Structure formats: C-alpha cells, structure tokens
Amino acid sequence: MLRSGGFAAAAASLLLAGTFFVVTRSEARAATTAVGCQDAEFAMLAAPLAPWKGAPLRVLVAAEQALDGEFALIAPDGSVAAKSRERNGGPPYFWIAEVATPAAGTWHATLVREAAPEACRTITREIVVSAQKPPRPSTAPGSVWPIRNSWNRATENLFSAWIAKLFDAPLDTEPSWKAWH
Fold first, then answer.
1. Domains in the chain: boundaries
2. Are 47 and 60 in contact (CB under 8 A)?
3. Which residues, given as ranges, of the chain have pLDDT below 50?
4. Which of 47, 28, 1, 31 minimizes the C-alpha distance to 142?
5. Dist. CA 139–CA 141, nearest whole Å
6. Pick the CATH number of 23-138+151-166 from 2.60.40.1930, 2.40.160.20, 1.10.10.10, 2.60.120.920
7. pLDDT tens-digit map of 68-115
8. What sign does the dihedral 2-150-45-139 (CA atoms) show?
9. What is residue 15's predicted lDDT score, i.e. its pLDDT?
C-alpha cells in the first residue's frame, strides 16, 4: 500500500495514470474459467473504473499466451461498436478497443479465441456504462488514491500492456502527453 510522502509522492503522477488499470483477481479468473475449460490466464479491464456516457470507454485485454482471436465491444443495442483483430505485444499479448461516446447501458466486452474448445471459445465481461457522471472515488486515510487490489500477474500484464501502448508510436515521431498535474 502506497502512502503519501517520500517515494509515493514523487511517483504519484506516473502511478495515478495507471489506476485505470485495476482489476480484481476474481474478476480476471471468473472471466476465463468455464466448466471443463483450462484457465486462459488473461485479464480484461475497462477504463475509466466507473464508465459513463460522457467519457470514452476503453477496454484492454492482456494474455500471457499468444492467443489468436478477435476482441469486440458490443453496445447495449447489440451492435458491434468497436473491434480489434490485431493482437499486440508479447508477452503479454493484448487487444485494445475504444468507443469515444458510449451509450448508457450494459456493454459486452467479448474475446473470441480461434483455437479454443467450443465451450471456452468466447469469453465475455459485462460493463455497465452509467448515464450520469459517477462520484469520484474516495481514498482511505493516509492513501494517495483508493487501494482496490494487490499486485499480481494479471495486474502486471495489464500494466505492461498499458506501458507498451503508451509508447507505441512510429519511429520517426516523438511521443508527447499532457502534463499530469
């Protein structure tokens, strides 16, 4: 648990950007385990943590193994709003899909794995997008931001995929970002 002061204060700017990529181990496991299926060792995460229709919806899937498949975001009306067939990185391997203005309602983030057994081929996670802006998360006393989970292999893969995407730019351009303060 990071506390304010010392190293945590100096690193807060960098780590704050990574708070979008928090997922519980049980959510990652639940999304990948079906009766008779071997755990695929991947994690799926939506950002922001509390999606709402006034902010872009970004979903990241990170896997330990090189899986061939297609990742899609299915809107509440059943239409495919975003699709990602291209697997990035490795390891971890990852897919990213984004919807600039998501509609309020229940979305489905779906990964269809080509070589998996039929019972394990499609993995879906529901993402509820609110019509109203959610309240800001509150922090625990003495914390820089809310602590939701511990560091594990799933969060490490998500963080690694995020860093790879953050620095993904053509070789002839210099990446730049807005100031984080």
1. 23-138+151-166
2. yes
3. 1-33, 36
4. 1
5. 6
6. 2.60.40.1930
7. 889 999 999 999 999 887 777 778 888 989 999 999 999 999 999 887
8. negative
9. 32
